[in-house]
Structures are given as structure tokens and as C-alpha cells.
Amino acid sequence: MAAGRIPRGLSASLSWFPGHMAKAQQSIAEQLPKCDAVLEICDARLPLTSRNSALDALIGNRPRLVVLNKADLAPKKAVGRWLDHISETSSAAVAVCARQQDSLAQLRDALLTFTHSRFRVAGSIVAVVGIPNVGKSSVINGLRRLSEGVESSDDKSAEKANASANPWVIPAGPRGGRRSPAGAVVGARPGVTRHLRSIRMSRDPAVFLLDTPGVLQPRIDGMGAALALTATGCIKDSDALLPLSNLAEYALASLATAMPPGRAAEALASMGVDLSRPEVLPLLEPDEAAWGHLQAETALAEAANVALLDIAARLGTRGKGGGHDLRGAAQRVVQSLRSGKLGRIALDGPRPGVETSWRA
Fold it and tell me: What is the pTM of this model?
């Protein structure tokens, strides 16, 4: 599950299951029997937490290719370990960045090989599933552009900037619609896609991708998972669900465990945090074994508050009453974490005893 320190005072679970998700889950259940295979999109920063395990029952024994999208935002070693972990549980796995043309080309080749080896018929339909905002529509649109031979200027610049970031493709271990000329709808907010639609990815062999809305589980057990999903944009921003101050506190307190050694200090300094102040030391070397103890919790909360004050001072904006704009600072922390501006992060990590199933 998601790592990281949970701010005190939050409930043990969170529920964000709008009406359109319930309808979407029913539609997916009705359409999956017509599909030949499944492309499951996850967020490479939290591959386990960004899965909806409830989809397993709907997918059943259909061939599944797991895609860790946004691999450019996660540490390469962590992504590699996750691919090994997933492949050992019987599903083929690929890590990609939907903004990179060469990355999508390798995904396309892997998917065509994956489907052609199983379905030697006139065409196959592949359902693309996942929770909100993991990049399903971006992946679909990228694959569609490849099939049409269209490359946008943004893709070209992204490819040049990230030419060395190639995805890994690991095969599974021994264990085991109608076409649409339009692309899939994309957006930075979770829950943009609300209807199922089929999009042609390839003419020869004929492969159609069924774009499905992002669906979360009705209730997310564990506030750590809820915080990680919201911090990465998979759950909508809402103070009614998770106060922004708590989200920023979680982000700041998680940097030292989510980033490679030494990178947390660089990230904090880049936002204007004065690392010479002893009050912020708990953010650099948090004692995970002490989380849950009042003294350690208080030290982390105070460290996060001091850091936010420094960040607000760097921004130079004022909040209500003329003081530092702490809400603006909190928004800067969360957006910087989300976008990758602070560096690569890993909010999940394969560990002994973790039970997960990517069934082939």
C-alpha cells in the first residue's frame, strides 16, 4: 500500500464514488465479455494503490497487459522492481510515458504482439481500464496517432527532451464495440471520461481499444492510500474530502521516503525551505517506526508548518489578514509533487507480504 505519514485527525477511510462511476462500472461489466483482452493502466508512482482491485472479478481470466504510465515521474529502479513484481504474478507489464512517441511505439509493438499471439482472427477488442487520471485517454490518443502516422509538435518536443527514457517490457511469468474516428477525451482533472467508446489502434492486424471511464472502489480503506491518490491527482481536490493543508503536510512528510536518498533536501530547498533550521529536520529523516506516536507526529506537523511558511515567504503572496498565504504555499507543494517538478517519487514499493493479483 501507499507509504507515507498520515496527518493526525483524519478518518480511516475515504469515499469518492460519484453516480457516473457506478453507471460506468455497470457498463464495463456489460462490455467486457465482448472484449478479447484488457489493458490495465496504473500510475507508475503508486502501481498498487492506483489499481481498482474490484475490476479483477470483471476481468476474470482474460489476457491482461499492465501499463505503468507516467514512468518519467517515478524513480527508474522503483519502476523496474515493480515490473519484476507484476510479471511474477502472471501479467505482462510495460512502463511508458504517454507524452513520449518512442515510448508509445514500444507499447504499441508490445500490445500488437500480445494480442496477435492470442487472437488470430479478423480483429480484436482490447478494453482499457483503470482508475481516474492515470492517463488512459492519453495512452489511447497516443496509440491512435501512431496508427495514423500523426505526431504532434508537443510529442516531438517531449521525445527530444526525454529521448533516453525508454520503457521496459517484461513478459508474464509462468503462472500465469464500434470504431470511432475521434480520439479519447483527456483532462488534468480526474473523471473526465464518462462514456465508453471504441477507437481503432491498428488496421493490420485490426485492433480496437475500448476507452472506459475511470472507476474507483466505492470506499478507499486506509487514509494513506487516499492521501497518495489525491496527491497524484487520481481523486479530485476538495477540502470536503481532504483538506489541502493535510494534503500538503502529507506531501512534505513523505518526500524523504518517496524519493532517492538526498533528493528530499534538494526538493525542499528548491521551494524555498531553509534547511539550516533544526525545526525542518524531521522532514529530511523521518522516523517511520515512530509514526503514530504523539511526539513524533507533533514534530513532523511542526516541521511541515515551518516549511510551508518558508515556501509562502518565497512566493511573496499574502493571504487573508495580510499574513503569509499558506493555502497558496500548500497548493504549490501539491502541484509541484504532481507535476514532477520536485523530482521522481515512489509512493508504493514492492515488499514481502504484499498481496496483489494481476491475473493473466
Answer: 0.80
